C-alpha cells in the first residue's frame, strides 16, 4: 500500500515568450517573498558563453546574483553548491540550462533548503519538475536520488525554439514513453498487490495524450512548445504524487538505463533512448507500435538504432541487460523470454522505419 499522501506542487509555472527577460516580474507576481533574497545562478560554462547577456540580465534582476558555472552533474558538485549556499546564507537557487544543470541545482536546493527556480534552456526530459535528480556518483555511474520539486518553473518559448532540435525531440520521446510505462505500472500493481494512485495515473496519461494527440505538428511553434512544457511538468508531478517514478518509467526506461550503464560510448540522449525503447516495449506488451511509429515519423524522430551506432548484437544485449538494471522493478520484461530472433526482427523493422 502506498502511504505517500504528502506532496508538493510548484507555486508557479510560467510558459511565455521572452519569459527570461521578465523572470523577476513573474516571481514577484507569484512568490514576492523571494524578491530581494540573496540568490545564486547555476549554469554551465558553455551556456553562460552563449546566453551571457540574458543570464547577466537575470542576475541583475535578482539583486546582482552570483553566476556560478558548475563543473559536473555530480552528487559531489551538488553538495559543494549546497555547502556554499548554507555558508553564505543564500536563499534562492536559479538553475539555467538543460537536464544536467537542472538536476544539480535541484538537488543542491533540496540539501540546502533554498527555494529553487528552474529555468530550462531546452525541453529534453521530464526532470524539470520531477522529485528526482539523476547525478553522477563515482566516475560515470549515475544514480537517481529523491529530492524536492522546484518552487517555480519558468519556460521561455524563444529559448526552447533556439535549442538544438534534438533536445526537443528528446523531450517528446520522454513524454511518449509514458504509454508503455503506464502499462508496466498496472502490470506491477496487479503482480505485487500494490495500489496505483489514480490521480498520478491520470496526470501521466494526460501528459502523454496532450502531445500524442496534439494538432500542432510544427514542434517549433509556440503552441507546441507550451503543450510539451506542460506535458513534461505533468509527468514530474505524477511522479511526485505517486511517490515513485512508476507513472513515467517502465521497461522502455530500463532499456535506456542499460545503454547508459553498459554502453556509455553510445551517443544518444535519455529521451531518444527511451523513445527507441518504447517500440519494442509496446510489442512485448502485446500492444501495436504502429501509432508510436507514425507519431515519430510526423515529428521526424529517428528511431533507427543503427543511426545511433547500435548494432543488432548490441541491441539484443541491451534488452538482455535491461532486465537486471533495476532489481525489484516489475515490468513486462519479467514475462518475456529473451528471444534474439524476435529482437533481430524488431531491430530490422526499426532500422527500416516500419
What is the CATH C level class of the largest domain, in words? Mainly Alpha
Distance between the termini: 41 Å
Approximate strand percentage: 5-15%
The description of the largest β-sheet is: 6 strands, parallel
| Average pLDDT level | 94
| Number of H- or I-type helical stretches | 15
**Overall outline:** globular
State the low-pLDDT regions, or none: none
Helix and strand pattern: EHEHHEHEHEEEEHHHHHHHHHH
Structural class: alpha/beta
Give your account of this protein's structure.
The chain is an alpha/beta fold. The protein folds into two domains: 12-163, Rossmann fold (3-Layer(aba) Sandwich); 166-351, Dehydroquinate synthase-like - alpha domain (Dehydroquinate synthase-like, alpha domain), CATH 1.20.1090. The protein is 52% helix and 12% strand. The protein is built from 15 helices and eight strands. It has helices spanning 23-30, 45-50, 52-61, 75-87, 99-112, 157-162, 165-176, 178-192, 198-212, 222-242, 251-262, 270-284, 290-299, 312-325, 340-351; strands at 12-16, 39-43, 66-69, 92-97, 115-120, 132-136, 142-146, 152-156. The strands form two sheets. A six-stranded parallel beta sheet has the order 1-8-5-4-2-3, with helices on both faces. Strands 6-7 form a two-stranded antiparallel sheet. Strand 4 (92-97), helix 5 (99-112) and strand 5 (115-120) form a beta-alpha-beta unit. Helix 7 packs across helix 10 (222-242), helix 9 (198-212) packs antiparallel against helix 10 and helix 11 packs across helix 14 (312-325). It is globular, with a radius of gyration of 20 Å. The relative contact order is 0.11. The model has no long low-confidence stretch (mean pLDDT 94).
Amino acid at each position: 500500500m502506498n502511504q505517500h499522501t504528502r506532496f508538493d506542487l510548484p507555486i508557479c509555472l510560467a510558459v511565455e515568450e521572452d519569459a527570461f527577460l521578465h523572470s523577476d516580474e513573474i516571481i514577484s507576481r507569484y512568490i514576492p517573498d523571494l524578491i530581494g533574497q540573496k540568490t545564486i545562478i547555476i549554469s554551465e560554462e558553455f551556456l553562460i558563453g552563449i546566453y551571457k547577456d540574458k543570464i547577466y540580465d537575470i542576475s541583475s534582476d535578482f539583486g546582482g546574483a552570483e553566476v556560478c558555472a558548475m563543473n559536473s552533474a555530480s552528487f559531489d558538485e551538488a553538495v559543494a553548491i549546497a555547502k556554499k549556499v548554507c555558508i553564505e546564507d543564500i536563499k534562492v537557487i536559479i538553475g539555467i540550462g538543460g537536464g544536467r544543470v537542472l538536476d544539480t541545482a535541484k538537488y543542491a536546493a533540496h540539501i540546502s533548503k533554498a527555494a529553487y527556480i528552474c529555468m530550462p534552456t531546452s525541453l529534453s526530459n521530464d526532470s524539470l519538475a520531477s522529485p528526482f535528480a539523476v547525478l553522477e556518483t563515482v566516475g560515470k555511474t549515475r544514480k537517481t536520488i529523491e529530492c524536492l520539486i522546484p518552487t517555480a518553473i519558468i519556460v521561455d518559448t524563444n529559448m526552447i525554439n533556439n535549442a538544438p532540435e534534438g533536445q526537443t525531440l528528446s523531450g517528446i520521446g520522454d513524454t511518449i514513453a509514458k504509454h508503455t510505462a503506464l502499462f508496466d505500472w498496472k502490470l506491477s500493481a496487479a503482480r505485487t498487490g500494490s495500489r496505483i494512485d489514480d490521480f498520478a495515473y491520470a496526470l501521466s496519461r494526460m501528459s502523454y495524450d496532450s502531445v500524442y494527440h496534439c494538432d500542432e505538428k510544427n514542434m517549433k511553434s509556440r503552441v507546441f512548445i507550451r503543450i510539451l512544457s506542460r506535458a513534461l511538468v505533468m509527468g514530474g508531478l505524477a511522479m511526485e504524487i505517486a511517490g515513485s517514478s512508476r507513472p513515467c518509467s517502465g521497461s522502455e526506461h530500463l532499456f535506456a538505463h542499460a545503454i547508459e550503464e553498459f554502453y556509455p560510448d553510445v551517443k544518444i540522449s535519455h529521451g531518444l533512448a527511451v523513445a527507441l525503447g518504447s517500440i519494442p516495449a509496446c510489442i512485448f506488451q502485446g500492444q501495436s507500435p504502429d501509432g508510436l511509429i507514425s507519431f515519430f515519423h510526423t515529428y521526424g524522430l529517428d528511431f533507427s538504432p543503427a543511426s545511433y551506432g547500435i548494432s543488432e548484437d548490441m541491441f539484443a544485449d541491451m534488452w538482455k541487460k535491461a532486465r537486471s538494471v533495476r532489481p525489484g522493478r516489475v515490468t513486462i520484461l519479467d514475462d518475456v523470454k529473451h528471444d534474439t530472433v524476435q529482437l533481430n526482427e524488431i531491430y530490422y523493422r526499426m532500422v527500416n522505419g516500419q
